[in-house]
Here is the input.
Amino acid sequence: MMMTARQYEDSLRKLDLVVYMFGRRVENPVDCQILRPSMNAVAKTYDMAHEPEFEDIMTAVSHVSGEKINRFTHIHQNTADLVKKTKMGRLLGAHTGCCFQRCVGMDALNALSIVTYDIDREYGTGYNGRFLTYLAYVQENDLTCDGAMTDPKGNRAFPPHKQPDPDMYLRVVEEKEEGIVVRGAKAHQTGAVNSHEIIVMPTIAMREADQDYAVSFALPSDAPGITYIVGRQSCDTRKSESDPTDAGNILFGGHEALVVFDDVFVPWERVFLYKEHEFAGLLVERFAAYHRQSYACKSGVGDVLIGAAQTIAEYNGVQNAAHIKDKIIEMNHLNETLYCGSLACAAEGRKEPSGTWSVDTLLANVSKQNVTRFPYEIARLAQDIAGGLMVTLPSAADFKSPVVGKWLEKYYAAHPDVSTENRFRILRLIENLTLGAAAVGYLTESMHGAGSPQAQRIMIARQADVPEKQKLAKKLCGITHKL
Ligand code: SF4
Ligand code: FE
Here is the structure.
């Protein structure tokens, strides 16, 4: 059954999550002023799935049950599914102006659908059957899953088993008859406290000596022993002020958390990889390729920022200046290039032995490499167009002050038909996206999320067939020599 946004919110209230923020336990994350905008963003993934206009993009037919499901729980069955996934990312980015958090779970499910099958083929294990039972549960209940990959990693010079503190990569500390006990942490977990489930995967390729670290499993997000420590975002406390205008985006936001697993029990039926160390790297690659495609979300957020830049240009009365028009064109060019990359890796997808369709790895990596750069340039252009007022503007409370409010109204007026308040609002949105709370998602997450730039460059080096290109070049100029 597909949940509505309301049912989703109610389902979160039933969870018993251990969440800490500002040194204190957050008893009820759903009603926490700072966290609630991030819940709203995930709720939008439920909401829009019920709108007829978006049904084709937001829903799919389950290959397991034949039922209509939310696309965020779907296993891609063809290139059309992958293309719709890209479109869904852009759509939601545009409607929320932030990270809507639900892609990590979708990408983890799809990666596991491939790799559990491949492990079974190699070893005759039963992971894929277990996984499909779990998938059916996720689809039937329309759950939000948090795909958890990034370990704290300690000293990067050492592999997991050589770390001075053996918990720097999540590991199995005990094997029991009914399951395993795990210890460790996952960092930067997008949407963690808005999730019903957490799906853990290894973060790097591993060797035999690291086999206790080669583990993948799923747990309910409120399983005993899991603690969430929410990360700070710039300007986060603006969300808790009585007037939300200073936050910029008054409806939506994202959040990340450090998730600590303090000797947590996982029953066997929820374990999807255990000690098959040679498959750890493959799972990482699969997840990374899917997640790099998911960054189509940034072209949706880019739509919002371009819209905001055009609006402030009009409010300032400069929209007809040739250089402003050209900057808007440049922003669009960069933003559509981001979209092209995500679409291209989807269109060039192929079927895996498991039946799941995977994206083209080279193109997914090229696409994400663009994402590490272009949002910064788009943000720079938006700040250029917005002007310095974006960062020197007094607070919403000052605008309402009986003493100084009149001065702000007078001196910050620009366009005769536009209220000073609306000029204020659009500037705050640009601030939010380019250096406030949403810049966490739009900029730094674009840089490091789904792998830092160098991770993509390694994959590009591996996947681009340079010797073949050399052959082409040599043939055209008559070189027959081997070198
Ligand atoms: Fe999805 Fe984008 Fe957020 Fe990653 S950053 S979870 S791809 S919305
Ligand atoms: Fe991410």
